[in-house]
């Protein structure tokens, strides 16, 4: 029989420099050219925040939150706890108590592929949390087993422990550590160009002229 619990070592953390770059990056900017690493859009933030950090992963089965409670005691400042609910959409594993524990550990956010609860307490804690929605039925300490710091599936995306996580009001993006800085710098440069374009449009230039769309339409009509 395999062990009911697997707890692998904590992953290396994303550097503070890369985290700072990611926190200047909009997920929707990266979405202009990247088509992978974005979790299902039904996983949305309960607060309007942008955060970035290091993925610490948990597989938490059905009505049980034993492994999740244990994981909270291992979190470090800068971590983002990523919870694979293994398909369960009925039981809320994350509420006010888990929020307090995660924030006390210095975690940046929680990402749950499933339901959460106690939204008023989450808001009062000012703790960023992404999930598939709210549910009144909660998990308990049933000792069913679980795994920590293993590859997990979150919204159709494989998340490895130590991956870079970027989450904002548009959604959640998972990046391999070796790609995070390059993507962030490219996004920041594009955002700066976008602001310049918006300024031109606000001044009267037509967006279709700037983007080239009008030229394509006129060519198609000729």
From TrEMBL:
Residue intervals passing through the bilayer: none
Protein's recorded name: Putative 4-hydroxy-4-methyl-2-oxoglutarate aldolase
Family annotation (Pfam families): RraA-like (PF03737)
Species the sequence originates in: Falsiroseomonas frigidaquae
Cofactor: a divalent metal cation
SUPFAM superfamilies: RraA-like
InterPro entries the UniProt entry points to: RraA/RraA-like (IPR005493), RraA/RraA-like_sf (IPR036704)
UniProt xrefs under PANTHER family: 4-HYDROXY-4-METHYL-2-OXOGLUTARATE ALDOLASE 3-RELATED
């Amino acid at each position: 029989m395999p062990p009911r619990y697997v707890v692998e070592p904590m992953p290396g953390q994303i550097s503070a420099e890369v985290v700072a770059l990611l926190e200047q990056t909009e997920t929707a900017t990266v979405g202009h050219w990247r088509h992978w690493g974005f979790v299902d859009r039904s996983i949305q933030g309960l607060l309007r925040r942008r955060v970035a950090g290091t993925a610490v992963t948990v597989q938490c089965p059905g009505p049980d939150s034993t492994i999740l409670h244990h994981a909270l005691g291992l979190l470090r400042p800068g971590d983002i706890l990523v919870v694979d609910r293994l398909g369960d959409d009925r039981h809320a594993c994350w509420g006010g108590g888990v929020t307090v524990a995660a924030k006390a550990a210095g975690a940046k956010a929680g990402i749950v592929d499933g339901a959460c609860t106690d939204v008023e307490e989450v808001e009062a804690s000012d703790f960023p949390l992404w999930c598939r929605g709210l549910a009144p039925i909660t998990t308990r300490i049933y000792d069913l087993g679980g795994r920590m710091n293993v590859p997990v599936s979150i919204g159709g995306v494989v998340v490895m422990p130590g991956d870079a996580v970027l989450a904002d009001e548009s959604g959640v993006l998972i990046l391999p550590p070796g790609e995070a800085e390059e993507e962030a710098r490219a996004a920041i440069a594009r955002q700066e160009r976008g602001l310049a374009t918006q300024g031109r449009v606000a001044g009267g230039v037509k967006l279709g002229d700037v983007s080239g769309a009008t030229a394509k339409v006129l060519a198609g009509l000729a």
